[in-house]
Fold:
Amino acid sequence: MLIFVFLAIFALLNHINLCMEYTELLEKQIIGRLKVDNPWWTEGRIPDYYAQMSPRLYFNIFMPLVQSTGIRRALILMGPRRVGKTVMMFHTIQRLIDSGVSAQNIIYISVETPIYNKIYLEQLFVLACQILGKNPTQEQMYVFYDEIQYLKEWEIDLKSLVDTYRNVKFVASGSAAAELKKRSDESGAGRFTDFSLPPLTFYEYIHLKNYSNIMLPTSLEWHGIKARIYQAIDLQLLNKLFIDYINYGGYPEVVFSEEIRENPGQFIRHDIIDKVLLRDLPSLYGISDVQELNSLFTMIAYHSGAQFSYERLSKESGVKKETLKKYINYLEAAFLIKVVRRTDDTAKHYQRETQFKIYLTNPSLRCALFQPISEQDSEIGDMVETAVYAQWIPRQGVSIRYANWRIGKLQGEVDIVGLNIARQKPDWAVEIKWTDRFFAHPNELVSLKYFMEKNQMNYALVTSISKSGSIKIDNLTLQFIPVACYAYIVGENTMNHTKAVSYTHLTLPTT
Structure:
């Protein structure tokens, strides 16, 4: 009997030794990976691959939030895949180094790296500090966690880190924007600051392509105030760039790479759509039928800007209604689509929202799935409308709807309505057109005229291909503006709005 006890003890000790050897090997591999991912520890700068990329205009809004170390908050960088979150992190790291921060006081950890699987954020952070010989309780440090959504209950770990290490600025990124924000709000109240990085706006696209010199700032008398707008010195060139933006302009890498532009489907469909639909969403929400989700998204993408109902979507896609609602929520969480709610002719909510519109958050997603669109294609109107909505979607705190109504035989629609939530009345309305026809025939805008009169609105905006000017119809004023100029203006205003909202966090109390 005694021999069996000795054998059992020997086997246990042998198992313990094997476990210790495995743990030591794993730790060596993690240390090796951390050194590879943080080359500035020895070289003093980020890799050339990232250094050579032009920073997004949103970088100048993001950077002060990172540098605000007096406010004890983690910064959560949210946005869809491939919009430049990792690049922005690396540009931030280089800016910190250039500003005098020691390169060895900056740690970058990509959470989606397989070797880090199921390892807590603090364990990785402490191990990196041990490598560098740093005491994070005594020195100002910066820690960047990339693609944080892959770690279960990351928000609890991160909040604990913020509370424990007062000298450390924690920055985390993730691709499931809505899910990240939900967890951030629930568990990180008072400890997290959210920053959303959208796909490229048309305003950013023009600047990254170095064509901002064709935009001439001017002003417009609007509702009794002078509004800043832009005119194009070369409108033909601007319209060409606008069509290019619709087809290729949502992602920085596509903008700068001719190779990717020749085959955007390979890059966007495989590296963005497939990863989101086949990996991210199933892992976050336990989706088993990924083919069903993929088919639904493809159908929505083809009809971006169309009005849907759950009944129609269920019938055409073959997905049960309850499952359908979940899928749409998931696709919104991944920032692939945006559901826009309907109002009636008085801009009031419908009691039962049976119909709604769905837009791609980035029009170039459609090009990747199907083919580039031209000015003459029948779908150009829907894609122009999608592109305009893409400038509005990232803006927080603005309630936009579309108006659609049927009263007897009278049916009408207005493309964009800005609601005043407090009054439940429309503040403004926009009709998106890719034609100059209505500049010569404004009386044909029957639905817009009806909506304005019904809601006692004196002003509305109508887009065109090339026509600008103010036209009076009875007591109504219609302001026409080329749609490419309008998209540029909205994109700039959205970025400025993000700056204003983000910088309120710099004055918040730290406790």
Observations:
- The chain has a mean pLDDT of 86.
